[in-house]
Amino acid sequence: MKKLLSLIITLCILFGATYLFSNLMNSKMIDWAFGIGLFFTLVLLFLSGKGNFSVNIDNQAQAASGIKQHYEETNYPGKYPFALYVSITYTIVSFIGMISYYWKEI
């Protein structure tokens, strides 16, 4: 149930951002889908997983305070959130869609 909710929220954000940018720029959604998908994928990758920005902040806080943080089994560094996989899939599908759309116009 948690993954289904994450899937729905992530896709709503991705499609909503794509729709918003395409309307603001008076262009087609296919023009923005890959770029927005790539942007959100990179942001999610940067903010999650091993060696990311949030873990570096945690490490600095541990070094300053001397208090070691214990990670929960579901939230340890190196485990990526489901939203990242959804975003990667959206990016790949939008890239294939963009290539096939513009391939016809060549």
Structure, described:
The structure is a single chain. The N and C termini lie far apart (about 45 Å). The model has no long low-confidence stretch (mean pLDDT about 85). The protein is about 75% helix and about 0% strand. Helix 1 crosses helix 2, helix 1 runs parallel beside helix 4 and helix 2 (about 30-45) runs antiparallel to helix 4. The chain is built from 4 helices and no strands. By secondary structure, the protein is an all-alpha fold. The chain has one domain (about 1-105). The chain is elongated.
In a nutshell, what does this entry contain?
The chain is mainly alpha-helical and 106 residues long. It has helices at residues 2-24, 29-47, 53-65, 82-105.
Give the proportion of residues in helices: over 70%
Number of strands: 0
Backbone shape: elongated
Q: Helix- and strand-based class?
A: mainly alpha
Overall tally of domains: 1
Q: Figure out the total of helices.
A: 4
Strand percentage, roughly?
under 5%
Instruction: Catalogue the unreliable spans.
Output: none
Mind summarizing the main beta sheet?
Answer: none
Distance from first to last alpha carbon: 44 Å
Radius of gyration: 18 Å
Overall pLDDT metric: 83
Order of helices and strands: HHHH
